[in-house]
Amino acid sequence: MESITNILKKFKPVDLIILAGVIIALCVGFFTYKDFRQTASKQIEATSKISFQVYIRGVTLTGNEIPLKADEKTFISIRNVPYSDLDILDVKADRKKTVLPVLNSKKVMVVEDPSQAYVYDMIVTLSDTAKITKDGAVVGGNKIKMGLPITLEGKNYKFNGTVSDLKVMPSADDEKFNSAINSNDNV
Fold first, then answer.
1. How far apart are CA 143 and CA 51, in angstroms?
2. Is the pTM of this model over 0.90?
């Protein structure tokens, strides 16, 4: 017992801390190798196409046409970090509306607001390939969820909006599997 205490007295506290750190690192490496601990690459469950809608509120347009068009590309920035060009699947633009009461009735009607003649609200549907995790879809290192601020930028526009809807599109393998199951149900 005295020999062990004599050996420990030769080491300084810093040496013991370094030795403990190396032992902990080896244990973590061993448990990762034996699949007791998940790494980031193992948390990805699948890669799939997604479509998400970006709601852009209060865009002032005095020209004759909407600068965003379906079947074109737009460059997006997620949380002010540039990401990539994405395909535009659909664009819906609607002028600002106001609610007016109908005289002698308890009904109301919705009409275009003449005080905001050039102000539009737009919903832009975009498509991309995402990594699907248990927490949701990940695009460019960011989780795509409703409420996420996104900037759409093109040759002659830059609009800020938020994600308002997200859909994971089934892959071709999923569709084959589902059709095989449905055809077996009919037998």
1. 13
2. no
CATH architecture of 44-172: Beta Barrel (2.40)
Boundaries of every domain in the chain: 2-33, 44-172
Closest CA to 152 of 64, 49, 53, 51: 53
Q: Is 176 helix (H, G, I), strand (E, B) or coil?
A: helix
Q: What is the pLDDT of residues 65-97, one digit of tens each?
A: 889 999 999 999 988 888 889 999 999 999 998
Rounded to an integer, what distance in angstroms lies between the CA atom of residue 139 and that of residue 78? 9
pLDDT in tens, 52-67: 999 999 999 888 888 9
C-alpha 95: how far from chain center: 28
The 3 state secondary structure assigned to 57-69 is EEEECCCCCCCCC
Average pLDDT, the chain: 82
How far apart CA 16 and CA 96 sit, in angstroms, is 70
DSSP type of residue 43: G
Q: Give the SS3 label for residue 14.
A: helix
